[in-house]
Amino acid sequence: MAEMIVEIVSLEQAVWTGTARMVRVRTSEGDIGILPGHEAVAGILKPGDFAVDPVDGSRLEGTIDAGFVFVDNDRVTIVADNVELPGAAAA
């Protein structure tokens, strides 16, 4: 099954890193779903909810403050001022 590498980083620490099948974030252009093979994109994140469907484990859901999302070559990087991911251990 296709997968991508996802990194979620706040200003203070790495929050979560792993492989995933899907990422959903809210950008200044609207909500986007990112799947493996997604075209390269950079976007400005709006504060709100996000979700990650890891390859191993259950869905991660959290909230972020303003930040950026970068997608390229099956790699998704989320950089936000603040990230709240209940129940996830820091990477």
TrEMBL record:
Residues in ATP synthase F1 complex delta/epsilon subunit N-terminal domain copies: 5-82
UniProt-recorded Gene Ontology molecular function terms: proton-transporting ATP synthase activity, rotational mechanism
Subcellular location as annotated: Cell membrane
Primary localization: membrane
Its membrane topology: Peripheral membrane protein
Any Pfam family matching the protein: ATP-synt_DE_N
Record's keyword annotation contains Transport: yes
Keyword Ion transport: yes
InterPro entries: ATP_synth_F1_dsu/esu, ATP_synth_F1_dsu/esu_N, ATPsynth_dsu/esu_N
Gene3D superfamilies listed in its UniProt record: F0F1 ATP synthase delta/epsilon subunit, N-terminal
Subunit structure as annotated in this protein's UniProt entry: F-type ATPases have 2 components, CF(1) - the catalytic core - and CF(0) - the membrane proton channel. CF(1) has five subunits: alpha(3), beta(3), gamma(1), delta(1), epsilon(1). CF(0) has three main subunits: a, b and c.
Similarity comment: Belongs to the ATPase epsilon chain family.
Protein name: ATP synthase F0F1 subunit epsilon
Originating species: Kocuria rosea subsp. polaris
